[in-house]
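User: Can you recover a sequence for this backbone? Please restate the input before giving your answer.

Assistant: Of course. Working from this structure:
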């Protein structure tokens, strides 16, 4: 029997991955790859080919993981399995914050406090099997799945080669993915690979509230991150017409852009989500009567 093939084995692996609180920029994010590398190096394939499994530096004390399973020396076709292992912070867990990285405990606590939870959450919980915790869905379950596929690849289950890539810093500045691109090119040269497909195991999203469809996304989506600096003119609050309020300028910009479907790109019937403001703030440290 394999290490990560049954539901129980995968759930256990997922809980172990979630237990490492790899919030973007934290020390746990720096050490997370050690756990995955240690787990993968238990597989006899990587004991035979230790240089196929690597922890690669991003240049800022973080690392990304590459693990290549080659079917045979002359096989070129390679599928890349891509994931990220950083997670966003846990402030919004409120009083359950302490157990955000302990899925079994958090889940049983949620079930025992089911009456306090919002109705849609309650309905979900009553319907099926749920495992709560920061990173369970986005996206350590994807990494767990990829690790189980790597194990299958080691046993010769696939026709081509499989290359696992797991990166840090996806939730912030994509340092991991940007450092990985040249490495992928090197690996292709070193092992004579041809990349045919990239499978990303990120979660899927509903298109509208209550959407029950299951989606598989193909192609790629880029992102545009515009930034605006609204430079006002200072004045005392008692003389508002002598100044220009930068907060007001920013709010007009937001109103113009927010959920504006004119900014959606539609390709083959598929529309990108409209833009939405992710951060808006002024540069004042404290409240004052100055505009
Ligand atoms: Zn994600």
């Amino acid at each position: 029997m394999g290490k990560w093939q049954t539901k129980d084995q995968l759930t256990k692996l997922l809980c172990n991955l979630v237990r490492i609180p790899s919030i973007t920029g934290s020390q746990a994010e720096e050490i997370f790859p050690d756990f995955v590398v240690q787990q993968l190096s238990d597989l006899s394939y990587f004991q035979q080919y230790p240089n196929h499994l690597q922890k690669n530096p991003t240049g800022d004390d973080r690392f990304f993981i590459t693990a290549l399973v080659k079917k045979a020396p002359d096989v070129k076709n390679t599928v890349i399995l891509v994931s990220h292992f950083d997670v966003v912070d846990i402030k919004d867990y409120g009083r359950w914050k302490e157990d955000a990285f302990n899925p079994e405990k958090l889940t049983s606590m949620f079930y025992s406090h089911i009456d306090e939870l919002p109705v849609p959450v309650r309905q979900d919980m009553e319907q099926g099997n749920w495992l709560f915790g920061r990173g369970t869905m986005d996206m350590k379950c994807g990494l767990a799945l990829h690790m189980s596929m790597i194990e299958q690849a080691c046993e010769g289950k696939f026709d081509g080669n499989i290359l696992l890539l797991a990166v840090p810093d996806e939730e912030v500045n994509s340092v991991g993915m940007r450092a990985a691109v040249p490495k992928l090119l090197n690996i292709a040269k070193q092992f004579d690979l041809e990349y045919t497909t990239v499978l990303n195991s990120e979660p899927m999203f509903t298109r509208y509230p209550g959407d029950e469809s299951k989606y598989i996304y193909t192609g790629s989506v880029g992102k545009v991150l515009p930034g605006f600096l609204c430079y006002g003119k200072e004045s005392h609050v008692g003389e508002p017409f002598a100044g220009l309020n930068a907060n007001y300028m920013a709010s007009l910009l937001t109103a113009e852009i927010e959920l504006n479907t004119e900014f959606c790109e539609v390709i083959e019937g598929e529309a990108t989500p409209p833009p939405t403001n992710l951060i808006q703030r002024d540069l004042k440290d404290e409240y004052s009567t100055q505009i």
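That completes the design. The first strand starts at residue 53 and ends at 57.
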